[in-house]
């Protein structure tokens, strides 16, 4: 068993945890706190309704539209 200490910011360093890993914390009220890893659900990069707009053909069309623009576009 490892002894963990809470710092001034209420953080605990978990030795085997990986960056961005998520845990659910459950306090049973009897001096025991249980951490359970929460697995993120895989999601699409874009909702289905937007996928049709992200195509090589659309990208080519947008590049044609933006020809001649200067970035950043000045407003003065």
Q: Could you please describe the fold and organization of this structure?
A:
With 76 residues, the chain is an alpha+beta fold. It contains 2 helices and 2 strands; from the N terminus they run ββαα. Strands 1-2 form a two-stranded antiparallel sheet.
The span between the termini is 65 Å
Q: For the CA atoms, what is the radius of gyration?
A: 24 Å
- SS strand fraction: 15-25%
Topology order in helix (H) and strand (E) letters: EEHH
Number-wise, the strands total 2
Q: Report on the biggest sheet.
A: 2 strands, antiparallel
Give the integer mean of the pLDDT values.
82
Q: Describe the global form.
A: elongated
Kindly state the percentage of residues in helix: 10-25%
The strand line-up of the biggest sheet is 1-2
Count of alpha and pi helical runs = 2
Q: Structural class, judged by helices and strands?
A: alpha+beta
- Any low-confidence stretches, pLDDT <50, length ≥5? none
Please give a quick description of this structure:
This protein is an alpha+beta fold and 76 residues long.
Provide the fold topology:
Layout: E1 22-27, E2 33-38, H1 48-51, H2 56-66
Antiparallel strand pairs: 1-2
């Amino acid at each position: 068993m490892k002894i963990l200490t809470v710092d001034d910011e209420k953080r605990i360093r978990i030795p085997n945890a990986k960056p961005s890993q998520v845990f659910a914390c459950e306090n049973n009220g009897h001096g025991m706190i249980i951490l359970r890893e929460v697995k993120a659900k895989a999601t699409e990069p874009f909702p289905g309704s937007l996928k049709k707009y992200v195509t090589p053909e659309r990208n080519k069309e947008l590049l044609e539209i933006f020809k001649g623009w200067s970035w950043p576009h000045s407003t003065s």
